# Entry
Amino acid sequence: MYKLLLCWRYLLTRFIALASVASVTLGVAAMIVVNAVMLGFTSEMEDRTQGILGDVIFTSHDLDKGFPYYDWHRDKIFEVAGDLIEELTPTAATTGMLTYRIGGIGEPVTFQVKIVGIDAPTQAKVSKIASYLQHPENRKLLSFDLRNDGYDVQGDGGKGAYREEMRDAGWGYRRWRAAQIKQQQRHFEAQHQTEATDQPVDPFTEFQDDIPVFDMAKEQHAGIIVGIGASSLRRTSTIDPETGEKRVEDNLALLPGDDVTLGFLTADWPPRVGSDNFTVVDLYESKMYQYDQGFAFVPIEKLQQLRGMVDPDSGSFTVTHILIKAKPGVDLNLLRDRLRKEFPRTRYSITTWQDDTKQMLDAFATELAMINVLLFLIFAVAGFGILAIFYMIVIEKQKDIGILKALGASSWGVLQIFLYYSLLLGSIGSGLGLVAGLLFVEHIKEIAVFLGYILQRDIFSPEVYSFYEIPTVVDVPTVVGIIAGALCIAVAAGVLPAMRAARVHPVETLRS
# Structure
């Protein structure tokens, strides 16, 4: 008991020891925050990437034309690895341009997008695209038909940024937009109407009534699903000077019910520039900026027809990818390797989603390791501080140590006093660092907003960091390892001073 009482007395009377406690606290808190943020980035990146790509990706080396006989490939894949596969779906992907006019006839806005033709019934079973949509019925059963209403704006946008705008989206909004465009067109024509008395009569005028007219108020083009990032002109935010909260300033320029134009290159040779109109039927938000701005999903049959993705020999449509969802618990590398044995690598590339993101995930792991090494130096500083303080205490307390030994305290008992003291310093510092780190992680969004308000800029831009908010994951084993490391360094720093105290000779100390 006397050992603990002496440890507590030294802690209360030696305020310089608080510097060591502060060093351990900062080190533990910093490492908890950094690891939580980096693990959050990694986890979110893995989840979003797997949600878009599926588990295993079966890709044609000819990404322009793809490969034919999808049904044969499907049957062959199930024959080779049917016991490992839950479902698969075909896709046809190409790069194109998405163009729409603000307000229907305003200035055109153009984005480069990855146009992905998907099979709606099977796509929802393989990837998480449906779960990112804004209409509850589309989340249950993905459809390229425009809904009447009921867009509930789930996800990041649903926190108030776009809820009011999406409230009337659907056919009601499309009919209102059609009436507005007609009124604007009539106004434009009235302003630019010219005399036509001397103009020659068009001989084909009498046949113009036979040309079918597209009625926007009653009809829709082929459906398209566009990301929140492309439908809002720029996903930026500012800080409210009164509340200090982050608020979205821009508005959605595209809503379900609007029409857009897709431009692309055809699959024949030489390629030609093709285009067609599509109707936005829903918006998706994966919370990953590159995906939300860079992807547009359309029916695969429509994209195949527009691009001429037809095999000249068989006349069958071609696909560029087959996305495969494995059964729960299946080793994806085993599934990949089994398929690679049956399909020639000269024609196909078969990878898992980890293979496609390996470089990015390895970069995250390397950054995390380097940051942890640098932050570990804080513990080293705390260790040297404890070492210096303990040496000073041992020198100052030579007489007290001699008295303790004269009263019967053993060398091992004196050694324990200083080891317990170092353990106490490490425990208090680790405990405070744990609380501070967890509180920081819990309120990291508010802290980011506050810092943004102080600096008058958004310190976490989605254009740079991919996500709209700072992702965090607190991994319990990692936290335990950080605390254990801090305690080990604190105890190790007290070993040498404790050994010196244990070697003190009571007679010589009292005589001097």
